[in-house]
User: Fold these one by one.
Assistant:
Number 1:
Amino acid sequence: MDIETPAALIDETRMASNIARLQERMTALGVRLRPHVKTSKCIEVARRQQEAGAAGITVSTLKEAEQFFAAGFTDILYAVCISPDKLDRALALRRRGCALTLLVDSMVAAQAVVATGHAFEVMIEIDSDGHRSGVQPEAVELIAIGKLLHEGGAVVKGVLTHAGSSYDLDTPEALRRLAEQERALCVRAAERLRSSGVPCPEVSIGSTPTALSAQSLAGVTEVRAGVYVFFDLVMANIGVCAPENVALSVLTTVIGHQPEKGWVIVDAGWMAMSRDRGTQRQKIDYGYGAVCDADGKLIEGLMVSGANQEHGIISRRDGAADAGVVERFPIGTKLRILPNHACATGAQYPDYHLVMASGGTEVWPRFQGW
Amino acid sequence: MDIETPAALIDETRMASNIARLQERMTALGVRLRPHVKTSKCIEVARRQQEAGAAGITVSTLKEAEQFFAAGFTDILYAVCISPDKLDRALALRRRGCALTLLVDSMVAAQAVVATGHAFEVMIEIDSDGHRSGVQPEAVELIAIGKLLHEGGAVVKGVLTHAGSSYDLDTPEALRRLAEQERALCVRAAERLRSSGVPCPEVSIGSTPTALSAQSLAGVTEVRAGVYVFFDLVMANIGVCAPENVALSVLTTVIGHQPEKGWVIVDAGWMAMSRDRGTQRQKIDYGYGAVCDADGKLIEGLMVSGANQEHGIISRRDGAADAGVVERFPIGTKLRILPNHACATGAQYPDYHLVMASGGTEVWPRFQGW
């Protein structure tokens, strides 16, 4: 593989299998899948998800909405509560024909949406696990927001929640419980809105761990998930994939050693891996990443234990000094590093290198910024 | 300030003062300053450093070398040990007139440099504190590498070290001791090379904390430092600056609240701040950053305590639920967040917004990738 290092590789076979796995699960459970493209920020990746059956996309920034709309994606959910000063930019997208849906969780934001005079499609964010934003499913404010939007001329499309605390779990039982809580509380919020006369056709829930754990999705219309397309070591520790499913890796080159310490120095530092240390408090702490050979086969027991901006230090996970590193990993050796967090690692790169089953490669751009 | 959030701001007054402070110190100590431009990856920032008296630049990637050379910088030190498969790209720069200096710390890399047949200028990396790469100052191999290069037709320009373990210190005494160790061991390596007949005109040392702590730089010819140009909260905890000196901040907008918890939700998540949690094990843990008002004045006691990709959660550092957050920080409020680590935060952005003393702003591009 003649690719300059460090580089972000996508294993096409693994990605296809990850896409198929969640898509088939969602189809079997009777809901639409709306992938979150914040993970890849890559048109080509989203096209693969669309071809496999995804319905629309989820974005985390207006830049994503603009980029994907320019590439032909029209059904776009912007799943971060709208900042009133971003309404002009959102409106410009709507006027160009983008079916952009906004999100609110406050009277202030709902009022700002209504004040535009444009019939924005809007969802209301529900807090189903206390980890971030959203209104409580039983809150009086939920109905007030719904009525303000509905009576003010906006189209209340539904309710949305994200059980992000699923990232803190690591047993199938706990994940199933949280998935059911995410479903039940969001469905409950929808029922309250409907009872009060506010239309609420859509119930949108999801996170990769809960999407892969839910037993029933009764009352849900769509599921959102992002990182499943690549998976990563955090997801492996949570238990929803194996390290062998991780489709994103960083290709790196050995540039030196500290033989007495058993250290291999590579050209993938934190700029190449990101500063994400998501496995730090999980079952297995992989440092800045798990080490594979150039073909992607895991080398058991090694990790990127330290990272400077452009230097990674590979050593044994158990802390022992590895023997014979100079001979086993001579300068020039190529390795692949599996990331803790695919969204953060991908963000460090202007493009991905797709590695096809044939061994051939292709460059897929990704974008940066807001 | 009419800037879409999140955005990376540079406070021009603070940056100018940071640049002047180190430049004046280095001039007083009789050495050249060769700033590390990996921090900013921004031509305009490096021009300010050059105008203040810097001599040449340091880079961490060949992309940086290419970008800065294209902008007129010719004296460039690539301070990561050269990977043999990157020699062609380095040679192309040399042939276009770039005075590019390479770094090696092994016989294998030195042999690869010599094998090109080109009279590369090369420095040898010395390990002065055990934190990463480099040969030991007393190692037999140091002389062997020097002779291999010198006799093989390369130009041995000198020795280089970086006491990166300075980031783990936080007292002036410990910093002064490490600065002296960095100086003494690198000078010692230079003396050994000279005694063995290998020319070694340059002795290059540095890290921001040691550069600001060294009492004597006898025998040193140049100092390298990067993050001093912006400073950050890690540097404030180390004790070489105050939070009020930090020139880089992230402008963000309040998009919601969780009033019972005293949380303010902003549109600067980890994508905007980076995943760097460098203050986690320091005197003051600032979470993902310290909170200032829109003018950059620190709001004591607050931090970005949690971050999702595009959501930041601001709460009190002492863990207590802040009262009245909805009234004090209404939706739409602009805040500035000081970063843990300026190099990592800057890397999340395609450009900086320079905020001039006049209040006017200017966009300065920065680049990404390798």
Note: Chain A has a mean pLDDT of 98.
Number 2:
Amino acid sequence: MKDRPTEKDFIRVFSRVFQLKNKPLLFGSEFDDCAVLKLASLSQNLLAESLTFSTDTVRESTDFPKGMTLWQKGWMSAAVNLSDLAAMGSKPVAFLFSAGLPRSFTLEDAEEFARGIQECVSFFGAEVIGGDTEYNEELSITGTVIGILENKNVIYRKNAKPGDFLCVTGHTGSAGVALSVLLNRIPESASDAFLKNLTEPFPRIYEGMMLAKSGAVNSMIDTSDGLASSVYELSALSGVFFEIDEQKLPLEPEALEIVSTRLKRKTEMNELNEDQTAQEARLILIHESLYTGGDYELLFTIPPEKLSVIEEVFRKINENAAAQLKTYSSAGKSGRYPCKFTVIGKAIAEKENVNIRQTTYEEQRLPLLKRGYNSFTKDI
Amino acid sequence: MKDRPTEKDFIRVFSRVFQLKNKPLLFGSEFDDCAVLKLASLSQNLLAESLTFSTDTVRESTDFPKGMTLWQKGWMSAAVNLSDLAAMGSKPVAFLFSAGLPRSFTLEDAEEFARGIQECVSFFGAEVIGGDTEYNEELSITGTVIGILENKNVIYRKNAKPGDFLCVTGHTGSAGVALSVLLNRIPESASDAFLKNLTEPFPRIYEGMMLAKSGAVNSMIDTSDGLASSVYELSALSGVFFEIDEQKLPLEPEALEIVSTRLKRKTEMNELNEDQTAQEARLILIHESLYTGGDYELLFTIPPEKLSVIEEVFRKINENAAAQLKTYSSAGKSGRYPCKFTVIGKAIAEKENVNIRQTTYEEQRLPLLKRGYNSFTKDI
């Protein structure tokens, strides 16, 4: 049987038809998170400030794990779109959506769902400016987010340079662990706050804006489709390769604890001692980090000499986080700050592969699998 | 059994949650076709030029009658969004979409569908700047269109004044007749060009821009949900009422012919003579005009003293139509120009109803039914 076309296959067709490349006025979103509209192109009277646009759909069957509240589904619908702006260092301005509501939806349901959207959009400084609804077999929502770029340096995916440090914000793998907790229906093993890593994605808007402002970042992308997938995107578009050190991945302590607890419960693992369990848990969490989507952190590259600039950027981010978090905490949220960044690898020119350096059992370099979340290859 | 909430019920909830009203910077799209973003609000360095945004979803089961080609489905997906810009007198700049493709879709299918989008968007002077796709149970596409307003006079739905003439562009009822032809599977009774009234909606972008530029229009909306529904929108938001003269509705000769032919075929109508058949056909077509969606004409109100200004506007529109139509004709299209406008009624203050003046059998004024296309009340 012939393989089904992948999302990328379709996008390639679309890109050709829409001739997204090399448009003088508009930067297409074929290879970046957002389309960019240069205001200067609209009128000679405008300054060279840009607008950014991005559109994304989330649906009950493929994007909302069982157990999510309607408020969370609303929050997530906005957050996944905002994260695309974050990856361009853009400031959100406005959000529009078109929602398909299941026939069982009540007006109270609509209100809770809308409040989730509203709280996410307004927390990140934007406004909902329009919407459209109709009935659908399942809850689905397409959001479009509009942002502005306050400076001229647009951060694309394509400008990673050999020698760049590869960095990631926050923790990796937590959303993947939270998903496996929800799918296995053992939520009691994780705290509410931890599950929100998956159910209330936190777009790194503020971090993206501060990184863009620093002028120190060569390339950036979010990790929503999984770290491996995002690294391959940077690699393909920048023409560089990467070497990742698995020991550097910023794993969250509670994630390790949840995985360890689950390992201990399994009969066949009972003979593992404490250290071995911890080691196995790390390996599982590294796997979640690389190949499961949902983390919505920023993955970016910087020239090594800019490391101290970025350290200063994150010092400022965390200094200001208290004010940032005021609204968000009232929405029952926590655990996103302080936000660190971690150098997890580097860009290289000489190899024709993206490698991962494994050291858990014996040191070896293996090709990173080109895998990640792709709703196209997942059977519903 | 309790009635299902209508689209308007849901929108009311959303509007409350998103507090769309009275925002200083943004004009929400609660009551208008587009959200408007005042660029002046983004930066003091920008002129008071506005961007407009609108988003809309179309789906196989509710929006694409059987028999439509994939190219037409693509064209329609863009056209329904562009029509919202037309109703604000806005010039299209950019189009983004998020498409759900059925699993049976081939890359050739995607290409044909994309070409339909591309030809529509580029015909009306805009560019596709981004897209997102995934698999879905049925073909569905949410488009977001971005436009600019070249002058400061935004035409809303809310400014119709008592005494205003109510005008409509083009013909009314043709899409409804085309739909009934397709549903009854007797396409041989209609020309290909006629069926395009339904399957290749032609947003009145150029007409909307020229009307906005004239400064003579008080209120405007498109007729995509049916004339009656659009008149009620203008009425509710402007606080005026309307009287429509059914004899003035601009019916298309081929539409009358199709309906007459169908009437003659029906056994029970055989006793009608030629005149009676024509009269019955007119009544059916008037009904289609008022209560069936899909026409995508512009419905607008003007102060009576501006009639000659509008006549001059349409003289110019048709003078320039040859150039406008060059591209479009090559896409196999026709019948949209010359574009006339027709005064079909007037806005009144004194009555508490929207009336239709009927004169076919005996003269009478009846309340216009508050009915139209609403995907919420239609069972799939």
Note: Chain B has two domains: 20-149, 165-367.
Number 3:
Amino acid sequence: MTGLRFDVTGIGNAIVDTLATAEDDLLAREKLNKGGMALVDEARADHLYSQMSQTTVISGGSAANTIVGAASFGAKTAFIGKVKDDAAGREFAHDIRGMGVHFTTPAAIDGPATARCLVFVTPDGERTMNTYLGACQNLTAADVDPELIKSSAITYLEGYLWDPPAAKEAFIKAADIAHDAGQKVALTLSDAFCVDRYRAEFLNLIRTKKVDIVFANQHELRSLYETSDFDTALGALRDENILGVVTRSEHGSVVVTREATREVGAFPIDRLVDTTGAGDLFAAGFLAGLAKDKDLADCARLGALAAAEVIQHVGARPQKNLAQRARENGLAL
Amino acid sequence: MTGLRFDVTGIGNAIVDTLATAEDDLLAREKLNKGGMALVDEARADHLYSQMSQTTVISGGSAANTIVGAASFGAKTAFIGKVKDDAAGREFAHDIRGMGVHFTTPAAIDGPATARCLVFVTPDGERTMNTYLGACQNLTAADVDPELIKSSAITYLEGYLWDPPAAKEAFIKAADIAHDAGQKVALTLSDAFCVDRYRAEFLNLIRTKKVDIVFANQHELRSLYETSDFDTALGALRDENILGVVTRSEHGSVVVTREATREVGAFPIDRLVDTTGAGDLFAAGFLAGLAKDKDLADCARLGALAAAEVIQHVGARPQKNLAQRARENGLAL
């Protein structure tokens, strides 16, 4: 995959995260589903924000985190997503461009504010997310630049794009352009509840070959195939005859194709601080490796290395140069 | 010091921090004085922001960090400082109130934006700060509520208040009200360059007994007495006949009165991530202990514990409940 302008282009919800530590009783009082992502309206977002203590504000968004992570590995990357021209939107744009990501989606001048995700981090490091989609609801197929998609080895799409009404058209348009240009399309299932909302559509994307690569964690995979048995779900994924990448937290990851199943261990950590972004950064490492034609086990190792970095601090964007971390660990790209 | 409404009230610049990791060559290119705080105008702030990669935004301000830290120890606290009614100003107000701090200084409706501090964190964990004072320049004596100061056991003032033109009047007014009500006044010297700018005035504050307690790190102390020898500077501080609290990074702290000198070790850490806020949080623990009539060595231990927490993550506000950390370490307040 050389000679192309971009290694990976991501399309996703452009979100700024607001994180705060919280005790489990706050989650219970607010009826928050621990470890999950809930969509909230503006009033609910305002209420939940009022329940937060000290906050940390960091640009987020699942696919955006992945793209920034891939950029930190040295990949040539681009991102498509909708912010409003407000303080949060300018912060999002600054941060993603600051990491060298090509980002030119025009900001909305009016309408809802830039999306925010209120993340409660409990003492066990688990994060519980509440997303107000705001300006993301205005992402449309018109925001997908065909030349950008054509020149990207991989177009990476988040399942969360099924939530804002018009974004799935952008998703389909991008996938079709990528395939017509002989490029690859990857999808992350995003969240077990997201899979629950759009199971039939996600299975249809896989079975009609709109996507070539699927990222999932074990919860999302079991939700996709409606089984409590991981091996059953994994077997079902293998039978789809695509490249499947399944993360299993501290148990590492499994990469499946019709021909082979590869298990790769998790990367060791000193201490777990905040799991926010673990899946996003795993995908970052994997895609950065894949774009450089690394073998699939090394792609998974790069993913594990990136996930390990991001769960040892608050926030879902890397704080260290991942290319350097990869070199230090014998995984130079 | 019981029966009073507030243990500690802080007066300081109300600032939102924007942090980014940076290599040393960026500091050299931008002629930034490593480890120091420089005042910058809006254009320079915009330029430096454009040089930052991925950012983390966290409410800051030296005295504000200290007050939030004291609140995390369970102290009854208040803060006086000026923000504008903009996104950053609302974040600052949310965060300080979210920690239980009484904060009612009216936000400016027009004029300069809420102050921001651009912090470059180098791989050695050192922070280099660039402050655009913005709305802080509009803090005046009128913002000092006499009832609040009278009802605070300790009023804590930052030396940085000498930078915005009108704030020193607020400082003097607060110190006089506190003393008239029989309360204590504490001053942090803030920064060695700040001491260099206002040495004569700071010495005058000490020698005219406008302040009862002085916090300094070793660089600030040496700057105050214009000596390269730490022991000489410490002797000079002891001769002022006030309570002097001097921090020495990994070498712990020294508490001096005319009668005695107490040395207390640093609190052990697993890894240094970002020294931002170390001095602020040391003062938080010390003041929280002092307000509860702890002996001076225990006050210094509480300071060391808080400083150790804050230097193990990005940002100058505590991410853990410090009252709980104190209990776990036999330092219950």
Note: Chain A is about 40% helix and 20% strand.
Number 4:
Amino acid sequence: MTRFGPFLKASDTGQLEFDGVVVTDLADRFGTPCFVLSENTIRANFRRIRDAFQNVYPAEVIVCAGMKGNWGLAARRVMVEEGGGGDAFGLGELTVAMLAGSDPRKIVMNGANKSRETIEAAIDMGVLNQVDNIDELRLVGEVAADLGRTARISLRIRLPLSKLAEVNYVDARYPEGISPSYWKRTFKFGLEPETYVKAVEIAKTMPGVSLEGMHYHGGIPRRAGFYREETEDMVEQIAMIKEKTGWSPEYLNVGGGFVTERYGADMPPPMEDYAHGICDAIVATCKKHGMPVPVLMLEPGRYCWESAGIWITRVDARKEDHTLANKTWVYVDGNTNEMRDPFDPRCSVHHVVVANDVNRKGAEVVDVCGQTCNAGDILAKHRELPPLRIGDTLAFLDMGAYNESFANQSNVIPRSATVMVSNGRASVVRRRETVADVLSRESVPTWLMARPIARAAE
Amino acid sequence: MTRFGPFLKASDTGQLEFDGVVVTDLADRFGTPCFVLSENTIRANFRRIRDAFQNVYPAEVIVCAGMKGNWGLAARRVMVEEGGGGDAFGLGELTVAMLAGSDPRKIVMNGANKSRETIEAAIDMGVLNQVDNIDELRLVGEVAADLGRTARISLRIRLPLSKLAEVNYVDARYPEGISPSYWKRTFKFGLEPETYVKAVEIAKTMPGVSLEGMHYHGGIPRRAGFYREETEDMVEQIAMIKEKTGWSPEYLNVGGGFVTERYGADMPPPMEDYAHGICDAIVATCKKHGMPVPVLMLEPGRYCWESAGIWITRVDARKEDHTLANKTWVYVDGNTNEMRDPFDPRCSVHHVVVANDVNRKGAEVVDVCGQTCNAGDILAKHRELPPLRIGDTLAFLDMGAYNESFANQSNVIPRSATVMVSNGRASVVRRRETVADVLSRESVPTWLMARPIARAAE
């Protein structure tokens, strides 16, 4: 759980403040439900990662903050000001990255099935195109030739991770456990080493292609704590590829997957431990094989955004049942359409704070429910909270990653506004949706519009 | 799985046809991915339900097709033509229902935490407001008085279902099983019997309130096969309430939850069995207590929409790995952002048809993957399918319920168009989304726009 800290704290009068702004003032001014993003928390999270790695790595480190976790234009603008890069997936995320003024050298373009239009955009913009397979490599070459440009590329690899074959990793998403080695081998992304070597040979012969990087994304193995082992395996593969082809990457992108406190672990490794483990393994293995140390790229997503966002809702109603179920339900004006972070094994256990009365005494066990038709629309289930009253403003913490980007509109419910706060100021960065927005793509066939409304003949 | 039938079939040349339209022609004309809704299948599904119940029930039956499964304006218009009603949840769904020309008498307004604005709308429109709790009942009375109108209401009940307390129901959503009785008791919706009696007494004294109905939604118990038992329990509660208050409902709404073949059961009861079980239990229990048989309302969702919708995508790429994972991945231009039916325990096992070559011979085992960054973005996992080629059009069957209504925009990926087909004609009823649509609510605080883009001072 996020602890209160420099940007999230209780005022002397017991009000929750985020980046210098009283949260209930935001509720009054912009309405609820509402996401609130702290500019200074984004900056602090970014700097923590960058410094952790740059302090122990002998070459340049580029932090490409994952856009899938939060693709907001304003959030991206903050990242650009910090000198950060971005991991863009598809034309939409690439569009946001470039509209916000990103340095193309710090943007990587991911995807296992990129459209020609997307590849054209990546070449136009000069970003590093992370190629998934040989067919795509050929397509990139073709598009580059058509455009008369050079495509900067990186090749994505899948690793054998043979040392982890016998490991059984258990977390809440995989009740029966999973082998990190099996997972990475059967992952839909990237090339196995044998084909990778072929891809390098092909790329070297393509005139419109500049092969600059290797990409490997650590998901499960990193979360399971094997970041040293997987990094060694990766650099060993680089050495093997270099031996066979003479090529080694100028940019080495090790992806993301750095665990936060909320994300399935009470005591995740501090970012500095990840940095030590990964950087030491790269430097040592490069030295062992006499290879230059590459520029290091990282794709942390959750770590950048999660603690930078809270989500506020108002308590509208209470219902108590003392005879049949012996339960209390507290209804708020938000719902789980906006709380479906699909990667979070602890979904719906966000820490809840009474923003208008942080220090309220007492406790009761309640279900905090949303307003959709779904029985599972419970924002905090069987949770001990201070007694909640109609009109209270509840803040759900650590909501800055994946919740907005995966939000849906079930029951035709418009989505929240998002407000950025910074040193006591506040500005809407995503306007509140309306029912008209949700319905803006609807139409009716002319043959149906022409008929009178009456029960059809049977 | 949906079998081919009168509206979904293979042409003589091996092309998939839906409601008289060749599916690959739709792909060419409207692009992919694309949802396709068959007008005649919606009509057939609706008539199957209505007839099943009306044929065995001695009073009027009103089928209020659940909008949460599919809230499309065109789908709703078809339902209106059929004389069907709607289960609307919140102002957005109510808006669609009334824009499509619904008969207000056939629309029910659900919700556990309705805003004042929503209650006003329900009163304005004359629909049956299904009230969740006593506070809401008081609010409805207040709003009706303010508007100088009468509010038509129904009260939602939770049932003890004591006979089912020892039953353990297992389906894919609840790996360890669940007690249908416990589930219904602790459900966030409705009033337990003791409070229900109080609510009736209060409603009778309110001048602006016309108490007309009782609402009970069978979810788990009905899916578990206990529709007779739960119906008897419900009518016994009506008798108890009548004895204590003198009131009994003119409209009895038994909700939805009718299992389809795809939905977690190989051999679900035919709709006619549900109809017999439920209608017999109502009639017999009313007779036993000397009560008049009420108008019967139903809220089937999945049953109306699921088989009426398919979703088509194109194969863009293949990748084979014969050394490390020994797998084949087939990439299409759709993704699981639009295949997240959250109520379907068999999510991602939709039947897949090669629309351009329905009878193709041969078989291979593949993962059909989407284009998002998520490892879990697999539309058909480890599935035996005919050998798939780049350019094939794949049709995923039974996609008409919950997939569009819960679709999200992760990775800033625009959502599909929807086309309605009918007797050989086709019309766009939901236009394809654009990146500009997805980004249409974004902004950047002025204080950030004013600064030059440069790394912040450290």
Note: The domain at 39-305 of chain A is CATH 3.20.20.10 (TIM Barrel).
